[in-house]
Amino acid sequence: MVPKTLLLVASLMGAALAAPPFAGARPSKPCKPSQSSSSALAPASTSAATSAGTSAVATPTTVADPVATPTLPSTGATDLPNPPEGVVLKHIAVGHGLQNYTCANTSSTAAATGALAVLYDITSLYPGTAGTGLTEEGFAGLSSTVLFSQTIPLNLADPSAADPATPALPEASYGATADPFPAPADLVISGMDPIAFLGRHYFDAAGTPTFDLSASGLFFSGAKAGGVKAPADADKGILSTGAVDWLQLGDSGKGLSSGVSYVYRVVTAGGVAQTCDVSGAGAGSVPYTAQYWFFGPSE
């Protein structure tokens, strides 16, 4: 399998800006990254300089530039509801890991049993962020870029399955060990500054979706509040099964959350289960990536 990597031409500036509050309006549906675009993951200021025939070295934009105000992506059709007033954007992350399923038998429907993912902070890469923001194409394409260029950042029973260069394997080959998370580490994509480790996503013993943003001291115990289908042209993933739904999660009501009130899973790539007649009876896992947007109280 040929990895679907993007060509990267510029290093990002290291300083990250604080996340501004959510503005409410949505941009048009994010497009998938062009495989031939050499500047897709360069900062927007770098791309402009390159097109003008000047150096491709990233330089910070001036203080006179407008401050970027992140807005939730749109599917181009039915969208998730906006977060309510009174909450602000805390972080945007790219999550990379596994969607887990089980099949009772080969004629049943695969049942979701949770997910495991490592989260990396991409807030400062949002388009328009002074000095560090990517192009719109590059930012929208991060899910695909990470899925097809990065090793799955989990402890797998078959370590070779974590390598994106390994041809697609049966779902059972992607299973994680009982201790699935390695030590925290930043995400390193060629040509970019390291993307900081933010935390981990998992389902607790009660099946509750949980986000431990240990790098920022935030924690979220959630419950599904809404969902819409991913765009028809969303990246179908390593197994070519399709992109999992976009979701809105609200608080679980268990009193466990701290600093986060809502989580949105958007810009998904991969993660849909194979049919049980293909995967076979038993447990299986499917690689996926997604953007996660975290909202919480302003104080």
UniProtKB/TrEMBL annotation:
Which UniProt keywords are present, listed alphabetically? Signal
UniProt feature, compositional bias: Low complexity: 23-73
Q: Which organism is it from?
A: Phaeoacremonium minimum (strain UCR-PA7)
Keyword Signal present in the record's keywords: the answer is yes
Q: Does the keyword Signal apply?
A: yes
Q: Entry's InterPro entries?
A: DUF3455
Question: Which N-terminal residues, if any, form the signal peptide?
Answer: 1-18
Q: What is this protein called?
A: Putative malate dehydrogenase protein
Q: Where is this region: Disordered?
A: 23-83
